[in-house]
Automatic annotation (TrEMBL):
Origin superkingdom: Bacteria
InterPro entries linked to this entry: PCMT, SAM-dependent_MTases_sf
Organism of provenance: Bradyrhizobium zhengyangense
One Gene Ontology term of the molecular function aspect: protein-L-isoaspartate (D-aspartate) O-methyltransferase activity
One Pfam family cited in the UniProt record for this chain: PCMT
Gene Ontology CC terms, in alphabetical order: cytoplasm
Protein name, entry field: Protein-L-isoaspartate O-methyltransferase
UniProt similarity note: Belongs to the methyltransferase superfamily. L-isoaspartyl/D-aspartyl protein methyltransferase family.
CDD domains: AdoMet_MTases
């Protein structure tokens, strides 16, 4: 086993399984998709640590969220093999690559065009043909490929992402971290008969996605 595959096994066994991720398909995906392939070369040694990993190259910070949170969100989403999925704010594409192992089709959005190019390269190098990455603001989603069975946020939102909710199909669900109030929590939002039902899942923290920040309060 290479050093990375040993680290990957330790990540799955020590960070993901121990946080009640029991879905075999997710565990297999996390063991087979090389997280280091989505990390700048200078930071690859950090690829399997239990942290939100900064993969940005430009001014705006962009992250891969913690492995254990990644696994728990995917498990909560209950992605089926026939599902059409949107991954929002994918950064370099790790969460989208995992999702591509679970779903029929995945669309990923990222506001930083340099990271979009990196995600596309990583998908191509791994032979993933059912995932595409587009440059788009997190709050916009991708209406062209909607409606979606599942939308997954690669981070947190401090506002209600109405445009994303509108891209869910009937019975569809959105999972991510809601930081609209404290403590922040992983949430699942389900669309049913045009209404949206919210269910908190567990306490969780993640970097807030660009464009989904709370508006700054005006101070005299």
């Amino acid at each position: 086993m290479s050093g990375f595959s040993t680290a990957r096994q330790k990540m799955v066994d020590g960070q993901v399984r121990t946080n009640d991720v029991t879905d075999r398909r997710i565990l297999d995906a996390m063991f087979t998709v090389p997280r280091e392939a989505f990390v700048p070369a200078s930071r690859q040694a950090l690829a399997y640590l239990d942290l939100d990993l900064d993969v940005s190259e430009g001014a705006a910070k962009r992250y891969l969220i913690k492995p254990q949170l990644t696994g728990k969100l995917l498990q909560a989403a209950e992605i089926g093999e026939g599902d059409n999925v949107l991954v929002v704010g994918c950064a370099t594409g790790y969460l989208a690559a995992l999702t591509a192992k679970l779903a029929r089709q995945v669309t990923a959005t990222e506001g930083d065009s340099a990271l979009v190019a990196k995600a596309k390269d990583a998908f191509a190098n791994l032979g993933l043909t059912n995932v595409t990455c587009k440059a788009a603001a997190c709050a916009e989603g991708d209406p062209a490929a909607a409606p979606y069975d599942v939308i997954v946020l690669n981070g947190a939102t401090e506002v209600t992402p109405d445009a994303l909710f509108g891209q869910l199909k009937e019975g569809g669900r959105l999972v991510g971290v809601s930081a609209e109030s404290r403590p922040s929590r992983a949430m699942i939002v389900t669309r049913s008969h045009g209404e949206f039902g919210y269910r908190p899942l567990f306490d969780a923290a993640a970097p807030v996605l660009p464009g989904l920040e709370r508006a700054a309060a005006f101070v005299f």
